[in-house]
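Notes from hallway chat w/ T.B., transcribed later so I don't forget. T.B. wanted the structure written out for a chain they're using in a teaching module, and asked if we could keep both sequence and structure tokens in one place. Agreed to drop them here.
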Amino acid sequence: MKTLTQLATVTALLLASQAALAAGAGGTWKTIDDETKQAKALVEISETAGGELSGRIVKLFANPDAVCDKCDGPLKGKPVVGMTILTGLKKGGEGWEGGKILDPKSGKVYSAKAKLAEAGKKLEVRGFIGMALLGRTQTWERQ
């Protein structure tokens, strides 16, 4: 009986994991501030039929009226809420790669890649310069 219960549990976990991966990265994700460990924003990620990801900020928790003062070009001075910060990620490797991510706080744009973790409950987003050695990874939580 114990073995049957364990088998059922493992099967349920595998099915849940496969369902999350099949669902992809589309949806709403909560970002966490690296320094304060507090919720920072909600990012809505959409995925095209071709599997390309883009994400825009739909909510800021601490400063909902923030504007991108340090951004260049047409984004300079624009509200951060509604701003597309993640673009061009395409399926490849273990997740998505070849994209760009904007840090509205610094106004800088970095190369980006992402992959699902914890059965699709988390998204590891890496912004980097060059060959991915110089950068940082944030873990976003599915909402």
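Follow-up for T.B.: The chain has one domain: 2-142. Might be a good example for the class.
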